[in-house]
Amino acid sequence: MMEKEYYNQEAEEAVLGAIFQENSLLQGMIIDESHLFFEQHRILLVTMKELHEKELPVEIIQVVEDLRRKGQLEVVGGLPFVAHISECVPNIANFKHHENIVLEHWKTRASIEESVKFQRAIAVENNPEKAQTILQGMEGIQSLSRKETFSLRDAMVEVFQGMQQDTGELTGVDTGYGALNVMTSGLQRQNLMIIAARPSLGKTAFALNVAKNAAKDAVDRNTGEIKPGAVVSIHSLETPTGDLLKRMICAEGNIDASKMRNPMQFFNSEDWSKSAMAMGVINGLDIHIDDEATQSVGHIYRTANELRKEHPDRDLVVIIDYLQLIKGSGKHGNNRQQEVAEISRSLKLMARKLDCTVIALSQLSRAVESRQDKRPMMSDLRETGAIEQDADLIAFLYRDDYYNKDSEAKNMIEVIIGKQRNGPIGTVELAFIKEFNKFVDLERPAT
Predict the structure, then answer these.
(1) Where on the phi/psi map is residue 437: left (φ > 0), alpha (ψ -120 to 50), or beta?
(2) What distances in angstroms separate CA 194 from CA 101, 137, 415, one per listed residue?
(3) Taking burial as the number of CB atoms within 10 A of a residue's CB, which of 342, 344, 380, 433 is the most buried?
(4) What is the C-alpha separation between 217 and 226, in angstroms, rounded?
(5) Which letter does DSSP use for residue 123 in this model?
(6) Short name of one Pfam family for this protein (predicted)?
(7) Cβ contact 127:121 at 8 Å
């Protein structure tokens, strides 16, 4: 057995135990089974990853069943071993710290192994070229660590350089709405955005408009260069792809949506011309739609990850309609609040890991309807605690003419920014052309 200073059994157990408690941790790990010292730990982590890939819950019964099926249950130590690991969770908040401990011990072991090879290449094989290659490998091992561990000085230099290179352009993806861009600086990478409203207020229509605008190419005002639009992945758990495309065609072509129900009966020649033009525009956008009704975060992550691999340098926007319909892991039983908390945290981790913007639509509770002023508030978010904590930006949609037929704010929607981690809160007003499913900047009279 290797000396104990070359491995840390407790840290390995803490990492595995934390995964039992929070399956989404598997998405952001920097270590894999090769970094673990104990064989049973390596086998267990592989099984956990396989279950997560299959969108199955990583919990004791499922893990034991899978190990038994593969003939590995007795190899790891049976049910007592799995049960023991599931209880080894000093504090999930220390997961990254425990990962780093495991990684540092692996680096020590790997360096020792490479040192032996280096000595053999020099003393026995008399092969300096091989020795040099081994030495470079040893340097690579020692440099492997978390991105977060780079020095504060390096980070400060990076921030300062970014400030000097600022051109005044949007720092994020263009939403297509001037006032909204001013308040948010666009759709920001690594951000989780929540767009919430009561049913029939226009959540899906708004998200489709933003998706279409984000996917369009933009012109840099300073250089005149064309910047490719974002790659957009829409995950619609409620509405079929065909219906979404019809809405986008109506919005792009300014076509009455009621006619789209039966074009052969209601379309005139102008409508056909508009629809052909709109379809041509939309067909040229890098928009992907997945309308599978039962999607888990793991499913959404895999789809987005494939797009990120295909387009490593492009902006990526992931839109989910809507959050409360996402399939949970099942490990929280009937506790929907805990399940939504896990989903919310996983979406935030996805935004960070894939360097993308995640926009999740969310339903609001019926409490809105019981108030005289029906403008949404943070407390109206269903299962609000975790969503409010994880989100970088929360926007509520409100239409006064939906509730008040005599409202003076006809065909207008308020986008109420209730939370913005790195920006102001406030309200942006847009015009809503309902018959086209279209949102546009509100034209105000000159003063």
Answers:
(1) left
(2) 35, 44, 12
(3) 344
(4) 7
(5) I
(6) DnaB_C
(7) yes
Backbone angles phi, psi at 330, to 5 degrees: 90, -5
Task: State the DSSP string of 235-257.
Answer: EESSS-HHHHHHHHHHHHHT--G
Structure tokens, 429 = 């007003």
Q: Tokens 């020590």 label which residue?
A: 108
State the pairing for strand pair 192-197/357-363. parallel
Answering whether pTM is above 0.85, one says no
- pLDDT (tens digit, 9 = 90+) per residue, 161-220? 665 555 566 789 999 999 999 999 999 999 999 999 988 888 999 999 999 999 998 776
Q: Which top CATH class is 178-441?
A: alpha beta
Annotated active-site positions, please? 238
DSSP 15-45: HHHHHHH-GGGGGG-S--GGG-SSHHHHHHH
Query: Which pLDDT tens digit goes with each residue over 283-298?
Result: 999 999 999 888 888 8
Distance (Å, whole) CA 156 – CA 413: 41
Q: Supply the DSSP string of 354-411, one letter for each residue.
A: TT-EEEEEEEB-GGGGGSSS----GGGBTTHHHHHHH-SEEEEEE-HHHH-TT-S-TT
Give just the sign of the alpha carbon dihedral 192, 193, 196, 200: negative
Q: Distances from the Cα of 85 to the Cαs of 3, 15, 20, 223, 244, in angstroms? A: 22, 9, 8, 57, 46
